[in-house]
Each structure stands twice: as structure tokens, then as C-alpha cells.
Amino acid sequence: MASERTKASPRTSLSSDRVIAAAITLADRIGIDSFTIRKLAAELDVKPMTIYHHVANKEAILDGMVDLVFREIDHPSKDLDWKAAIRQRSVSARSVLARHPWAVPLMESRTSPGPETLGHHNAVLGCFRSGGFSIKMTAHAYALIDSYIYGFVLQEANLPATDGADMAALAESIIDPLPDDLFPHLTELAVEHVLQPGYDFGNEFDFGLNLILDGLEAAK
Q1: DSSP secondary structure of 12-69
Q2: Given pLDDT bands bounded at 50, 70 and 90, which one contains residue 122?
Q3: In degrees rounded to 5, what are phi and psi of residue 7?
């Protein structure tokens, strides 16, 4: 319906920024594998060829989408020590990528990164360097942090449930049919941890992030 789309009316109001914003909205809804220029044109209520008056091709659209996602992620604050600043940035990255999980496979694959992408990488590298990391350790630290964030976001996005009644129902549906002694450790984890009130898989993110930050602090 028109009210649910990023409409460009009249057509002269279309711009590259509007195309990229609509592309992100569409990808959030249908995923990147189903994303096509034809579907984007329908989202904007224009003909597919009209889009190419504002962006060169699909690759340029993907570059712009990734750049806007990087814009949403907080830079490490210069007012905090490196550890607190990287934690803040990591939490922000996870939150942003949870809204745009389609972006994860694209984040480091673009060969024409935009200014927001480059500026974000520069800020994170600068945070590590200001925190006393050597160039080599900065490279290790950045790779480790983002591998963890990207991997966690993908895992969380693909779980059929992460907390609450849905998670309890899922765990019970797996465990209940099994004989008690067939997979004892799996049963133990489900009964004594996952099925306990307040369980949320998302809490594992902070635990893992803190371990990484503590390890980097010791290693630098």
C-alpha cells in the first residue's frame, strides 16, 4: 500500500538519497537475496529505468546502503577510554545490524566504500591507537571485535527464538521427547539455564564482548 512505501511523488522529487533510503527499507523487509531493482522501483512507485537517472547501477545502490548503515553506528567516543569507547561502539553496531541483518555479509565486501564507511573505520582504528595499541595489535583487535559482532548478529537473527515463552516452548519441544539419559548435558543446559525465568540469549553478547575486551587489554 502507498502508506507503507517510500513513495516518490512527484517523480521529480526522486534523488539518490531517496533511492538508497528506500532500498534499505525494502531490504529490511524482504532481505538482500530477494532485493531487485524492479522491486525497488515498485517501492518508489517509479519505472525501473528511472532509478538509473539517480544511481549508476545496483552495485552503487548496495555501496550506498552499506554506507548509510555505517552512518547509523556510533563512532567510539573520544571522551572515554579505549575500552569503554569500543564497548559503546560495539553495542551500537550490534543494535544497528540487528535492524539490518542483511548488511552483515556486505559490510566488508564492498570495493568502493563510501565516506561514512571510511570515516567509521578510521575512527575505530584511531580509538585503538590512542589507547596504546601497536599497529599490529590494532589490526588484530579490530578484526576480532568485528568478527564477533557480525557472527553474533547472524546467529541471533537466525535463531527461531531467543527469549521468553517462545524460547521456552522451543527448548521444551526439543528436550521433552528425548530420553533423560540420551543427551544429558543438553538436557541439563535447557532445564537449569535456558528454561529459567529471565533467560535471554542476547545477554551472551555482553559476556563475550567483555571477555574479548579484557583479553585485548591484557594482550596489548
Answers
A1: GG--HHHHHHHHHHHHHHH-STT--HHHHHHHHTS-HHHHTTTSSSHHHHHHHHHHHH
A2: very high
A3: -80, 145
**What b/e sequence results for 54-90 when a residue is b if at least 16 CB atoms lie within 10 Å of its CB, and e otherwise?**
bbeeeebbbbbbbbbbbebbbbbeeeeebeebbbbbb
pTM given for the model: 0.86
167-191: burial string, b at 16+ Cβ within 10 Å, e else: bbebbeeebeeeeeeeeeeebeebe
Please give the full DSSP string across 195-220, using - where no structure is assigned: TSTT-BTTHHHHHHHHHHHHHHHHH-
Axis crossing angle, helix 115-130 with helix 135-158, rounded to the nearest 10:
120
- Please say whether the beta carbons of 85 and 76 come within 8 A: yes
- Quote the cell numbers at residue 32: 538482500
- All 3 cell numbers of residue 123? 575512527
